[in-house]
Amino acid sequence: MIKDTANSEYVAERRSEGQLAGRVALITGASRGLGAALARRFAHEGAQLVLLARTVGALEEVDDEIRASGGRQALLVPHDLRDFDALDQLGASLHQRYGKLDVLVGNAGHLGSLSPIGHTDPKVWAETLDVNLTANFRLLRSLDPLLRLSDAGRAIFVGAEEARASKAYWGPYAASKAALESLVLTYAAEIERTTVRANLICPGPMATKLRAQAFPGEKPDTVLQPDDVTDRFVELASQQNLLNGQRIVVAN
């Protein structure tokens, strides 16, 4: 199901002034945490948003917040990223509606379980790789033609320090993020001679539901808030960005 929301001439006039004015941007995991923060920031910068998450009610809440602050219409896509066949159809749907995609933000993530590898449930392993790795592969497979139709297609994925830190008990998450990094850097090499650019951002410790699951005793105000790290995403999403194949770590 895809849902449009109302817009106004006043909002259209305001959005023309932002760094992402008129750019079509798809954000996964957009209903909370970093995804919701990016949705708010990209809307403020004038982007035409396509927001993807599993729960329609949560997406509507983000969209209501955006419109209440003067943002423009959003396209809401309630979807489970593990439904790979539907991801294959997403590109065709967006092509019919917009004719291109300017920005893809692969933000959605799954922690899995923190346990010794020998104790990891195969179902947890599969789900973690499905969400963190395979879904992003299927998104690239589906949306690469649309990014190439943009005059400056930008693909941004959320990496993690655990991908290189070899931390005990983080097996599924770390392995999936390490593989995602390899996937994105390979894609960046493949599109080097095009106008598309692909990069990763590692936001570091941040007050999200995923981090609360990993560190249940941590006080949220002792780490960055999702809104604190949106600047780098805007920079990489802009037409002016020429970086490609970079892994950018946000300093705390």
Quick structural summary:
By secondary structure, the protein is an alpha/beta fold. The protein is 45% helix and 14% strand. It has nine helices and eight strands.
Task: Give a structural overview.
With 252 residues, the chain is an alpha/beta fold. It has nine helices and eight strands. It has helices at 9-15, 33-44, 56-68, 84-98, 122-149, 162-165, 171-190, 209-214, 230-237; strands at 3-4, 24-28, 48-53, 74-78, 103-106, 154-158, 197-202, 247-249. Strand 5, helix 5 (122-149) and strand 6 form a beta-alpha-beta unit. The longest helix is centred in the middle third of the chain and has 28 residues, at 122-149.
Notable characteristics:
Rossmann fold, 252 residues, 8-stranded mixed β-sheet, disordered N terminus
Contiguous runs where pLDDT drops below 50 for at least 5 residues = 1-15
Main sheet: which strands, in order across?
A: 1-4-3-2-5-6-7-8
Strand content bin: 5-15%
| Beta strand count | 8
| Total number of distinct structural domains | 1
- Look up the CATH topology: Rossmann fold
Radius of gyration: 17 Å
Helix content estimate: 40-55%
CATH architecture: 3-Layer(aba) Sandwich
Shape: globular
Biggest sheet statistics: 8 strands, mixed
The CATH class, by name, is Alpha Beta
Number of helices: 9
Distance between the termini: 38 Å
Q: What class do helices, strands and sheet pairing give?
A: alpha/beta
